Amino acid sequence: MSTKTFAARAALAAGLLWMAALPAWAANTLKDIRYATGSGGKVDITFEFEQPVGDVNAFTTDVPPRIAIDFPETRNAFAGRRVTVGSGAASAVSVVEAGGRTRAVVDLFRSAGYTTRSNGNLLVLTLEGSGSAAATGLASPDPAKRIDSGIRVAGVDFRRGDDGAGRVILRFNREGAQASLRRDGNRIIVDVENAQLPAEQQRRLDVTDFATPVTRLDPVAKDGGTQLVVAAEGLFETSAYQTGNEYVLEVVPKVAAQRAGVGQVGAAAQQQRYTGKPVTFNFQDVPVRTILQLIAEESGLNIVAADTVQGNLTLRLINVPWDQALDVVLRARSLDKRRDGNVVWVAPQKEIADFEKAREQARIDVESKAELVNEMIAINYANAEEIATLLTEGSKSSQGGGASSGSGAEGDRGFLSARGSVSFDTRSNTLLVADTPRKVQAIKELVAVLDRPVDQVLIEARIVIAQESFAREIGTRFGISGQESDVIVSGSTESNRNYLNGVANANAALARYNAELALYEQAIANGEQATRPTLPNTPLPTFTNVLNTRFANNTASALAFTILGNNLDLDIELQALQEEGRGEVVANPRVITANQREAVIKQGDEIGYVTITGTSGQQTATVQFKEALLELKVTPTITQDNRVFLTLGVKKDEVAGFIDVPGGGRVPQITKREVTTAVLVNNGQTVVVGGIYEFSRRENLAKVPFLGDIPALGNLFRNKNRRNQKAELLIFVTPRILQVAGAQR
């Protein structure tokens, strides 16, 4: 640090000390400063006074590294003002006097531990060398002569903080504990030389289960004081602060420390991230205004403290971001801050709250007396009445317009002031606003955001009804008759003998036709003229009417034959059927609507039917109608990530048949297929919003008792029927966003 830079900072610090209103007279005088080097890089800096030295206040800063010692009620008579050391950790010593107080600042090449001791008119500051294990802080040079300060360790606690940080809390029975921190590899050592550790607190704490870098806490009594050894693992950073009777050490994982500033303070600070440069402060009963000045130097901010900011503070902060250090100081003295650019105003919390309350009340008073202006705002895409409802909760008229006023209200009402009003005209879709200029401007800006076209959505639905059926029938039938007797088969009576004669006649006629046809074709081939024979009209007689009665609907095939005897005929009929059917019905409704507007499209019939009411003597016929519709009802909502949320209902009705009503009339029977749901779909994506699958299977067996149960042979005396039916309903929906230029999303 150059002499000019140090002089500027010293002058600024002196000005703050002067504002602390300390006594103007000095009871002691600093006469001389000298130094001596020792082994191991130690440096002894001796301050000589006219009288014995009383209490002194010392604190340290980490960036830049330095030690500051305040001598109250002391005048500076040292002519040199600055002593260059350039040995060990010490660079130079500077002295400045202001307001009856003298401050000595020791500039360091690097951070180093130190001790102070008084000897009559001399105060000796000893800077430890690089190999010393002494920690930063005020300490007595002889542990055997340490005086019991009455400070005891009241508790050792551990908590898990944000981002996996471990928080170690040392609580003392009262204020005044002097704790120092140092690191030895993966161990963090906290020495409290003036606080004793009771026996009940000397227990090891295993904190591995908290999943933090800290694994173990070992509090031990050492040389009449307390030493806490914190074992940690992995890469981590540390920060510590002390307020009142608590000393808090935070061990933050390296990754978490880089993502958010090192260190947190209290529950409120757990949600706040600190990004300031780490600093180290060691304050022993130092004025709060002086601490704020040091923080201002480190942060580069202009901190303005109110006149009511008074009092002293004992505080130790080690490797803590400066913005966190500022919050700790403010919280410790019940202060608050308000920042405006590069200027920070610090004052008691109540004073800031009263100031802001008074400022807000003054603003309200000015607005309550401001002149009202009238403004007509034309609405292009939105609805003027809906926007008026948004602006105020006043009553509206449904006849061509409405109005709302609030001259008697207390404070603002929605977007209007207490005296503001808003009207709307539905014919021209215009808002009429009467309010203060500031409120009118705010309403115009709001309307400019709301009054924009919205995107539209094309919703396309496909309703697919797929049906499949399968039937198979296999069996055998027998018929037996005596000579010239009749056999009744499937409801028809005929003679087996006559049937055989008819078959022979028909076959003979067919043979003659085939012979004549051969002669005709031969003549034509020879170029001769010939007449084509006519097919004889001699149909084959039917053995049974099976094809025309039992299987009149083409549901089976049959093969029949007869075994003839002199007095007995045996008729056999083999039956077989296999039927397959497949069908598909597709409906494709589609509709376009604006964002968040319901759309309905439907197509179908109204089925009329007659119902009879009344007694037999006085009956009344009434014609009623029932709808059978294909309908799509949907409300789309376009999300910010360009997807579509659909609230939709799809249905497809069909007339399945009619039911006869006793007394007259027929009522239609409707088959309904319907789905109501809500679904989130990507733009242009097709999704199945519903489906129903139906399957039916039926098997029938007809057989001759006893004979149908005979193994193998029983197949000749039985008839099997099996039928399977499948039906599947699928509903597909595809939304597509139709973007409009300038639309609101």
- Counting DSSP E segments of at least 2 residues, the number of strands comes to 41
Beta-strand fraction estimate? over 45%
Distance between the termini: 57 Å
* Multimerization state: single chain
Characterize the structure shown:
- A hairpin with a 2-residue loop joins strand 19 and strand 20.
- The protein contains nine helices and 41 strands.
- It has 745 residues and is an alpha+beta fold.
- Mean pLDDT is 76; it is low at 1-25, 131-145, 260-271, 394-410, 483-495 and 543-558.
Per-chain topology:
Blueprint: H1 3-19, E1 28-37, E2 43-49, E3 57-61, E4 66-71, E5 74-76, E6 82-87, E7 90-98, E8 101-108, E9 114-119, E10 122-127, E11 151-160, E12 166-172, E13 179-184, E14 187-192, E15 195-196, E16 205-206, E17 214-222, E18 225-232, E19 236-243, E20 246-253, H2 254-259, H3 266-269, E21 278-287, H4 288-299, E22 302-305, E23 312-321, H5 322-332, E24 335-340, E25 343-348, H6 349-368, E26 373-378, H7 384-391, E27 401-405, E28 421-425, E29 430-435, H8 437-450, E30 456-482, E31 486-489, E32 492-495, H9 496-525, E33 557-563, E34 568-587, E35 590-594, E36 599-614, E37 619-638, E38 643-660, E39 666-682, E40 687-703, E41 718-738
Parallel strand pairs: 1-5, 11-15, 22-25
Antiparallel strand pairs: 1-2, 2-10, 3-4, 4-8, 6-7, 7-8, 9-10, 11-12, 12-20, 13-14, 14-18, 16-17, 17-18, 19-20, 19-23, 21-23, 24-25, 26-29, 27-28, 28-29, 30-34, 30-35, 30-41, 31-32, 33-34, 36-37, 37-38, 38-39, 40-41
